[in-house]
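Box 3.1. Reading complex inputs
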Amino acid sequence: MIEKNDNYLNFNVTHSSMGELLSSLKEKEEISNICKERSLNIILLKNLFFWSAQGFNNVELARKLGVHRVTVQRYSSTLKKMKVEEYHKLFNYISKGLRNGV
Amino acid sequence: MKSELKLKSGKIINLPSRMFRNKDLSEMNLDYVENKIYFNKYDEKKGFISFNKEVEKNMAIINYVDCSTTPFSKEELVSSIKKQIDTNSDFIILPYFKDENEYDLNIKIELAGKIKTRYNKEIILEISYKATPQMIKKVIKQSENFDILAVFYGVHYGRFPSFRLLCEKIFLFKQVTNGKVFCTGVPLVFSGDEYSKYSYLFPIWSLVCDGWVKNWKRGGGAKEIRLVDYEDYRNKNFMGWCETHKPNDIVESVNMSVKGLFGDGHAMKQVREQYIGMLRDEVLNEVYSITPKSIGTYLRDKPRIYIALILDLYKQKLIIQKVREANWAKTYAENDIRLLEKELFNFLSPSEIEEKIEKNIVTLVSKEQKVPISVLINEVQNSRF
C-alpha cells in the first residue's frame, strides 16, 4: 500500500501541482476568514455577485434570491467599506468559482 | 437541484420551492419572491387574506385550509375544497385531517380524481408523515388521481425518528411514481446527535423534497433565551455563545454585541427575531444553491445521524433528473432504466454519480444510436473499481 502511494506521488504529484494545491488552500482559508470577520455567507455573496453583474438592484436581488432586503443592503454596504486588497481577493475567488461553474 | 415546473395555469415555478407566507414576506420587507409559492392559510375569522397583484403575477398561489386538528369528515373535506375552488389559487389541496385512517384516505383519493378532471389546477393530496405502509401503497397505486403529494410534518423541532418516517415516505413515493413531493409544516431546527448537546439550524428541505412550508403553529415558549450562532449554526444560550465568542464581540448583521443581543425587553426580542430571520434566509439560500459537488462541504459538520437519509434522497433526486427524466433514457424500457439507476445509486457521493452519468453514460449514448443497457451498466460497474 505504502509502495503504491509512493508510486502515485512520484508519478502524479509534481512540485508545481503541490504548490497550486497549497496556494488554493491558503486562498480558501483567507476568503473564509474575510467572510467570517464580516459574517458574510460566501454562497449568498456568490449569488449576489452573479445577479448584480446582470444589473439587478437590491430589491430585485432580494426578490430573486428570496432573502431579506436588509441582508442585501448589508452585503453591498459591507463590500463598499471593505479594503481594496480584500475586495480584490474576494472578487477573484468568486469570479474563478463562477467561471468553473462551482 | 434546481428545476422548473410549469403549472396548468401557465405559471412557472422554480423547484425546490420555499412557500412564503404573508408574514414571511412582510418580515423580509418584500412584496413578492420571483417564481416561488405563496402559501395563503385560511383564517376562520378573516377567510383567505387578500394579497397584492404582484404576488398573483409572480408567485404560484396555494390557498390552504388547515384541518390538522379536525377529525376527518367528508363534509369538512368538501367544504375545504369549496373554499379553494373559486379563488385565484393555482392549486387545490386536499388537506390532512387529524388521525385520518385508510378509509378516510380512500375518500380523499377518489375525490381528488374527480376534481382533477373538472378543474384546471394542480391537485395536491396531503397525508401525514405517520401514514401507515398500507396507506402509502394506496397513495402510490392511485397516484394518477392527483399531481403532487404533500406530506404533513407539523412539528417545530425535528428529531431523527420522525424525520426518518417522513423521508421513507418521500423516497418510496418518488421511486415508484416519479412524482413531486411537498412537505408542509416543517421545522428548521433539528436535534443534534450523540456528539453534540446543541440543536442545529438545519433547513435541508431543498435537498429532500420539491417544495416546503415552515410550520405555522406557535411553539411553546422557551425557558431561557436561545439563539442560533452564525458561526456553527448551533442553537445556544448565552453561555454557549461565550464558548465561541467574547461577550463584547459585534454581531455584524444586527450591529450589536453578543451580550446586548441576549438583553431583556420587547425591543431586544425584535432584534433577535430580525437576526434569526436574516440568518435563516442566508442559510436557506445556501442550501438552495447546493450542487452535487458542494453537498459534501455543507454536510461535513452537521449532525451525522441525518446525513445518510439526506444523501439518499438527494441522490434519488439527482438520478431522477439526470436519468429517468432525460430524453436519451426514454428509448429504453422502464425496467432497464431501473437497473441502471440501481447501479448508480450504489455510489456514495452525488458528485461521483453526476460524473458517471455525464462523462460515461451520456458520452456513450450520444456516440451510438442505441447502446444496449448491459453496456451502460457495465460501464458504471467497471468504473467503481
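In summary: Chain A touches chain B through 22 residues (CB under 8 Å).
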